[in-house]
Amino acid sequence: MSSIPRSMEAAGSGPVAAVERARRTQPSGWWGAVLLIATEATLFACLIATYFYLRFRTDEWPLGGIEKPSVTLPLVFTAILVATVVPMFLSVRAAKAGKTRSAWWLLLLATAVQATYLGLQIHLMVDDLHSFTPQANAYGSIYYALLGIHHAHVAVGLAIDAWLLWKLARGITNYRLIALRIAAIYWYFVAATAVAVVLTQLYPSL
Amino acid sequence: MTVATPPAAKARLDRLERIWKESPGVLGWLTTVDHKRIGILYFFTSLFFFGAGGVEALAIRTQLIGPDESTLSPATFNEMMSTHGTTMIFFFVVPISLGAFGNYLIPLMIGARDMAFPRLNALSYWIFLCAGTFLYVGVFTGNAPSAGWFNYVPLASKAYSPGPGIDFYALSLLFVGISTTLGAINAIVTIFKLRAPGMSLNRMPLFCFAFLAVSFALIFALPALSTALILLELERLLGFHFFIPAAGGAPILWQNLFWIFGHPEVYIIILPAFGIATSIIPTFVRRKMVAWPLVALAEILVAFLGFGVWAHHMFAVGLASATTIYFAAASLIIVIPSGIQLFSWITTIVTGTPRFQTPLLWIIGFIVLFIMGGLSGVTFAAIPFDQQTTDTYYVVAHFHYVIFGAAVFPLLGGMYYWFPKVTGRMYHEGWGKASFWLTFIGTNVTFFPMHILGLDGMPRRNYTYGPEMGWTGLNLIETLGAYLLALGLLSVFVNLAVSLFKGEKAGNDPFGGDTLEWSTTSPPPPYNYAVIPKVSSPYAMWDTEDREEDARNLERGRKVLEQGHETAASTAVDAEWDEVLDMPSNSAWPPLVALAMTGVFAMVLLQQWFAAAIFVAVLLCTVAGFHLKEPEEA
Amino acid sequence: MLGVASIVFLGAVAMLVVGWVRRDRPGLPFLGENEKANTILVVLFGMAIPIVILVALFVISDLVLLPETDAPAAGSTAMTITVTGHQWFWQVRYEGKDAETANEIHIPVRTPVNLQVRSADVIHSFWVPELNRKIDTIPGQTNAIELYAERAGVYRGQCAEFCGLQHAHMAFRVYAEPKARFEAWLANLRKPAREPTTPLARQGRRAFMRDGCAACHTISGTEAEGTVGPNLTHLAGRETLAADTIPDTPEYLFRWIQNPQAIKPGVKMPGLGLGPAKFHAIVAYLTGLK
Amino acid sequence: MRIAKPILERIPPESPVSPVLWFAVLGAPGAYSVQLGLGYWLTEAACSPTGGRWGISLSAWAIVITALAALVAVAAGLISIWLYRRHGDRHDPPPAGRVAFLAAVGMTVSTLFLVLILMTGVGVVTFRECNQS
Q1: How many CB atoms lie within 10 A of CB A91?
Q2: Which helix (H) or strand (E) element contains residue D101?
Q3: Which chain A residues touch B116 with a CB distance below 8 Å?
């Protein structure tokens, strides 16, 4: 704790963990990620605000006789996605402690579950498309817009996971540890938006 | 520091020079990650868009020179006025302030060697260039947007604007929004993390406070615009419904989303000007700013309150009274932070010993124009008055006083002020003063009569007016004023262009500046500072002992960081030295990522979904390539 | 408001002039170099005084004056008029009176009228500067204001929200008339269109019905029931054509119907190319529709 | 395996940033944001076509929200004053100088937002609910 490290040079579990311990405030990458998430979160806030704005224009909701959404499956799926927060958190903790291998396996576990979630969600969305389309009316439009943009965020998260799995398999560096931490924050954010999105969409049935 | 460099110091400077050298020639500019070069690229690109927007403005004024003129057809007029607004706001003022001034000066002012994310910085620039080109491809192929810069639906919906003009508008703004968001994030992290050790929040230059405020405002304002644009394009390209009442949509939804972005945007435009003013005034007045903490606060506060006033653009749409009150109250209170700054500037000038050189003249012009624009702005918070004057030339007068007079004058003053720093040469003082007076008079002759016309009932965006309305004389004066204004602006750029080659050598610090950038050479070396500077006040350059210590540190090799592209990172609040970072060097990936993105946007515009998907794949590959090389492998 | 603004502006400029005059002397006039006094000055002029002024402005304009522009409560006025904005003309209907016209609104003087505004296409804004505030016409929404004229006269109004190509030519007139005159005017408006009296006019009527005009325009009492363009039942009673763009004289009317695009480029009305003879006949028919 | 090389001695760590200080600075703006956000959406809901069914009393809500927001602003202001008195001059080196700076900021901000919160509250209560003007 008595010296200023050249942190970007740290490679291998030991030095990386040492740099991580020595750092007194968050690294630049962490700030960048948090700010990006802040702007993305605002985007979701605007979309959800749009949902309720449209809802307050009318007496009938959902519009045009569309059935109210079913509650159980979406909630279960969301719970699955939220659960992946645990392996992500543990993965970061393992990496910080210098246990790169367990970090990698935990990340793989999280990725597998997240991918399954996306698959199931898309399946559910295709089912919905059979009963009503986004072109039907404003309800359908905002319903699918919210869902689609949420799915896009999950897909981006999976791409980050894949890249990290590839990188971490080749050992850890300070740079990769920061990337893993960023990925974890990103998934916390995606999990939070998943909850917000699903509660918004289930609102007519609640 | 350049005087009689001791050999030990000389060796270190040479070594730094070698480490930070970039590729020569065009390739160097294409792959550069140096914040100064990127700043210069931003500067010339946004200046080009300024020229385009200016030509459009002159065309508009020429059409309005007399009643029932037919220089422009109504269709062309509407395209001109829509493109003029869009260009000036999104492709000139914001990029030149954040991209050129912010980029070039923030790292210098805080004693850093680059932005926090240098390659991301390059990417922001290339995206900006591609997005601007994207819009102007539309303009030059006869597909300019024509629903005004705030693009109200349903006029902008497919039914009333069937051509691709609106798509060019919406997609190019989404596109440039990515660039601006990345730029804002970069600026914030740079200011948070790369401040020279010792520069705690209460020792940061006011310029940086202004840019911090702007960047935060952008991060929270742009998503509202992006949402609006995404919804609009989903509606236009894929047949979704958000804005058409028959399908359950709401036209006012667009206005809400747009102005949640749009009003903060006004402050985003003007805050960099505040920052520049607070840099120029202390230098030429030879004293520190009066009420420094209040000014720092005011800069942040303007950005914050800007989010609570959006509906004052919508007082005529028939909102509930209870709703309007929220926004009227906030629109009044937002005057206070501006008042604080205004009186701080004025008091500083009065109590100091000002030298009225060109940069200070522009700032004084700015103060006068800003008071005018501010006072006319307050009147919009009086709802009944707003409901009369909104959408008339009174509004046009008001916002040109604010976003031309108050926002662009300091940019021009700043060009003069930092010209010697960037180029190493002095501008011509006599021509500088003349160009100021020409522009100042031109601005007032152009925009002042608009107040009167507006109060007399002339609506904005009319492509013509009848002779019986009695608006002929003032319109003629305005148009002549616009030509004068164009001449004034031209003389600024001619002065600077000639001085670039013929100006006297400037030296490090021709004005006795107050902030760190004046301590390094003109132009600064690629690594900015050989020694990470010592900072113990917001006026670092006036702390002579600190600067002498820097020179001694160079000789002794303390705080030099010469093992690679290195810079110091500090804690966010009190700026204690926390780590040494390795910064990336030249990269060809940023322009490639931007090109791939252009492909995606172009294919979406053409509704070639399969090709768009291919470009998304290409984009992913380029992003992966971007991250291929890690810093420790550099 | 202008007075306060002028004082602020001149005061600030005066201080700048003081700065110029005292450019070689540091410190404030009288007070000298006193950092505390400087800060107090900034707080006083930049915060304290503005807060007082702004709160006063808020109370006066937004709490006391604002209710004057309130939408009238339902049923509180003697008469309701519905104005619908179209690209680029105004449709005017007298509710419950079965009377319709375009681009001119007649109201009885010193009588509050409930004005309901709507839009048929994009957003417009209804604005008669001398009578009341602006009110936007929003598709899917009905807004209301009170129209009240203290003195008889003609008041010009216009569209104040950019609405496309011919936003500049979307004006109208409000005629505030003594009650009796207004009633007579309204009684005439409620009648069906006059039958043509001359052979030329009859010929014009035939052309109007057969050659396309009727697809867009309504003339009540005839088979012309189009709703795209303005109602022409009493066209000859109006003073202007094409939303206050040109005077309603036979010469202008002829030029207008022969080639509307030359007078108002982009207007939805096409030039039908029927030849001068038919156009003369149509003008003869329309000028009879008093 | 490379090791991160230290280059300079570190200064001893300083006192952490206190949450009380940030409450003093951000309390009043936060309270105002809640007032605006909640107020806007309550109005939207109450004045919607379905609004009648929900029976939202805008004035009652406005009074409650305004009172709470004003309370927070006053508290933040008082804490700022207390902090400012305790930590000398803003020219001192950090952290004392920074705390004094932020406390000065807190005092100004709290005053300003208190005025704004009260203006808004009084304004909303004055008007007939959901009336257009």
Answers
A1: 27
A2: helix D96-126
A3: 28, 31-32
Q: Chain D within 8 Å of B632 (Cβ-Cβ)?
A: yes
Confidence at B576, pLDDT banded by 50, 70, 90: confident
| Chain D touched by B319 (CB under 8 Å) | yes
Whether C15 sits inside 8 A of B317 (CB atoms) is no
Q: What tokens were used for C112?
A: 């509050």
Decide if B235 and A4 are in contact by the 8 Å CB cutoff.
no
DSSP B461: T
Q: Does A3 touch chain B (CB under 8 A)?
A: no
b (16+ CB within 10 A) / e for C111-127? ebbbbbbbbebbbbbbb
Which pTM was predicted? 0.93
Q: How far apart are the C-alpha atoms of C75 and C78, rounded to whole Å? A: 7
- Point out the residue among C28, C87, C166 whose CB comes nearest to the CB of B74: C166
Which DSSP category does B563 fall into?
S
pLDDT at D7 over 60: no
Q: Are C267 and B75 in contact (CB under 8 A)?
A: no
Best residue of C4, C161, C244, C246 to probe chain B, by most B CBs closer than 10 Å: C161
- Any chain B CB within 8 A of the CB of A23? yes
**Residues pairing with C136 in the sheet:** C125
Strands (E), B279-413: none
Kindly report, residue by residue over A165-187, the tens digit of the pLDDT.
999 998 898 899 999 999 999 99
C-alpha dihedral (C4, B266, B142, B66), degrees to nearest 10: 10
Give phi and psi for B585, each to the nearest 5: -110, -175
What is the residue-averaged pLDDT of chain B? 92
Q: Please state whether B461 falls in left (phi above 0), alpha (psi between -120 and 50) or beta.
A: left
Beta-ladder partners of A5: D6
Question: Given this model, what pLDDT does residue D129 score?
Answer: 67
Find tokens 């609040």 and name the residue. B573
Contacts of D47 in chain C (CB under 8 A): none
pLDDT in tens, C130-167: 888 889 999 988 888 889 899 999 999 999 999 999 99
Q: How far apart are the first and last CA of chain D?
A: 72
What integer is the mean pLDDT of C181-191?
A: 91
Mean pLDDT along residues B222-246: 94
% of chain B beyond a pLDDT of 90: 73
Answer whether the bond into residue B197 is a cis peptide, omega within 30°: no
